[in-house]
């Protein structure tokens, strides 16, 4: 009997989803690992270049601002120029930004460029150009996760895999960057743009419309963040990521002050804390969330209380093992809740708006990396406990919205639809 025109079986559909996502997951993993290569060297490099802590903070904050602004633009571009061109454009900007950053740093270390000019060019290369380019990768991956899935469970699993790819980069990148920095501070800076360039060449050679699905074109305005269906869900995500940003930026100060450690001991202790949290995060998002198959509300309502308990423990932790336990618990809680957030907004918009909604989701995440580091350090100067308690309050607000918001409850009754016959129809490249 002919099967033409019939929807694919669940096993076949899952295979097609994985096939659509694999190129995007590889792209996210590589480019975010290239970014994370720089994490161990930014502070010592800034000292060598005679940049202040405030100037380094501005480099990071401006990069987050560029990512926040660019993300919705990449979401709209997916509908207009297609997945492949968005990937290549984003990787081109990322490669150019990291190449320029390495060149500026090399000239600054050689004393051939004055410090004010070094700082200005870092803002242009590492912050604006790279920040705008790297935003394209998670936007594209989340859009494909939205268009290549036909049920809430599939979509939650797919968005969890995108988060897991970013989590793996947070484990691999700093470890590799630290090892390279032991030989030279410039080695991670040289390797990062090479990785982005190789990835761009791989995308150019291998990624075609049949290999990776993209959002279909749509007419009319895209979803707006103030839409009553969306703003509570985006606010939940903002609070979740804000809580992470508040404590992530102060972990070094917290470890040094509570354990009374020197710079080298602090770096080693922070490495233990973040590595443990990264491993837990990858395990939860890459394995536990797909295996559980929970709906988005259950993920949000289960993960948020665990994160609240983690912040409560962190507020009273006075030993390395307790701080590490608190961050592992935080990774467990946010590892459950965050895939619920990233999937939830995709459930209340049309399939043809998945590119646009992925841009809004990524912009929401980027905004927290503008606010979180600046607010966390400012609050820490007032009292070391305040940023932790603020983070606890942010997750509590997210939990309240997850229980009380009509928009959150609406995700329980939304039917996910897809074009008949395939999980997603690939868009023609133009």
Automatic annotation (TrEMBL):
<keyword id="KW-0472">Membrane</keyword>
<dbReference type="InterPro" id="IPR011701">
    <property type="entry name" value="MFS"/>
</dbReference>
<feature type="transmembrane region" description="Helical">
    <location>
        <begin position="268"/>
        <end position="294"/>
    </location>
</feature>
<keyword id="KW-0812">Transmembrane</keyword>
<dbReference type="InterPro" id="IPR020846">
    <property type="entry name" value="MFS_dom"/>
</dbReference>
<feature type="transmembrane region" description="Helical">
    <location>
        <begin position="128"/>
        <end position="148"/>
    </location>
</feature>
<dbReference type="Pfam" id="PF07690">
    <property type="entry name" value="MFS_1"/>
</dbReference>
<feature type="transmembrane region" description="Helical">
    <location>
        <begin position="360"/>
        <end position="380"/>
    </location>
</feature>
<dbReference type="InterPro" id="IPR001958">
    <property type="entry name" value="Tet-R_TetA/multi-R_MdtG-like"/>
</dbReference>
<feature type="transmembrane region" description="Helical">
    <location>
        <begin position="55"/>
        <end position="74"/>
    </location>
</feature>
<dbReference type="InterPro" id="IPR036259">
    <property type="entry name" value="MFS_trans_sf"/>
</dbReference>
<dbReference type="GO" id="GO:0022857">
    <property type="term" value="F:transmembrane transporter activity"/>
</dbReference>
<feature type="transmembrane region" description="Helical">
    <location>
        <begin position="189"/>
        <end position="209"/>
    </location>
</feature>
<keyword id="KW-1133">Transmembrane helix</keyword>
<feature type="transmembrane region" description="Helical">
    <location>
        <begin position="230"/>
        <end position="256"/>
    </location>
</feature>
<feature type="domain" description="Major facilitator superfamily (MFS) profile">
    <location>
        <begin position="20"/>
        <end position="409"/>
    </location>
</feature>
<feature type="transmembrane region" description="Helical">
    <location>
        <begin position="386"/>
        <end position="404"/>
    </location>
</feature>
<dbReference type="GO" id="GO:0005886">
    <property type="term" value="C:plasma membrane"/>
</dbReference>
<feature type="transmembrane region" description="Helical">
    <location>
        <begin position="86"/>
        <end position="108"/>
    </location>
</feature>
<feature type="transmembrane region" description="Helical">
    <location>
        <begin position="21"/>
        <end position="43"/>
    </location>
</feature>
<feature type="transmembrane region" description="Helical">
    <location>
        <begin position="329"/>
        <end position="348"/>
    </location>
</feature>
<protein>
    <submittedName>
        <fullName>MFS transporter</fullName>
    </submittedName>
</protein>
């Amino acid at each position: 009997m002919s099967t033409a025109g019939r929807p694919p079986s669940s096993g076949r559909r899952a295979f097609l989803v994985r096939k659509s996502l694999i190129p995007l997951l590889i792209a996210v993993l590589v480019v975010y690992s290239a970014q994370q290569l720089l994490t161990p060297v930014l502070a010592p490099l800034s000292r060598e270049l005679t940049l202040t802590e405030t100037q380094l903070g501005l480099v990071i904050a401006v990069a987050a601002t560029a990512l926040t602004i660019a993300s919705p633009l990449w979401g709209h571009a997916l509908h207009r120029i297609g997945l492949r061109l968005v990937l290549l454009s984003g990787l081109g900007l990322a490669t150019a930004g990291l190449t320029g950053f390495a060149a500026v740093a090399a000239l600054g270390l050689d004393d051939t460029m004055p410090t004010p000019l070094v700082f200005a060019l870092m803002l242009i290369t590492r912050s604006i150009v790279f920040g705008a380019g790297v935003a394209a990768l998670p936007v594209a991956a989340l859009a494909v996760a939205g268009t290549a899935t036909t049920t809430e469970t599939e979509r939650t699993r797919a968005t969890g895999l995108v988060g897991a790819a970013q989590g793996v980069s947070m484990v691999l990148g700093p470890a590799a960057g630290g090892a390279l920095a032991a030989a030279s501070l410039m080695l991670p800076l040289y390797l990062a743009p090479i990785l982005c360039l190789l990835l761009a060449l791989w995308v150019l050679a291998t990624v075609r419309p049949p290999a990776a699905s993209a959002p279909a074109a749509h007419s009319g305005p895209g979803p707006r963040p103030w839409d009553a269906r969306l703003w509570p869900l985006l606010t939940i995500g903002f609070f979740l990521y804000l809580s992470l940003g508040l404590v992530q930026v102060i972990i070094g100060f917290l470890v040094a002050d509570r354990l009374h450690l020197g710079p080298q001991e602090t770096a080693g202790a922070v490495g233990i804390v973040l590595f443990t949290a990264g491993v837990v995060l990858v395990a939860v998002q890459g394995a536990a969330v797909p295996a559980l198959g929970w709906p988005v509300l259950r993920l949000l309502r289960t993960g948020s209380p665990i994160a609240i308990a983690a912040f409560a423990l962190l507020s009273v932790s006075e030993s390395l093992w307790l701080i590490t336990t608190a961050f592992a618990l935080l990774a467990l809680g946010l590892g459950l809740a965050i895939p619920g957030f990233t999937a939830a907004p995709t459930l209340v918009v049309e399939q043809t708006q998945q590119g646009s909604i992925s841009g809004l989701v990524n912009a929401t995440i980027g905004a927290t990396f503008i606010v979180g580091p600046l607010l966390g350090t400012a609050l820490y100067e007032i009292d070391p406990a305040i940023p932790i308690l603020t983070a606890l309050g942010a997750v509590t607000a997210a939990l309240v919205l997850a229980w009380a918001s009509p928009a959150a409850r609406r995700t329980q009754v939304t039917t996910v639809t897809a074009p008949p016959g395939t999980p997603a129809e690939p868009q023609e490249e133009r």
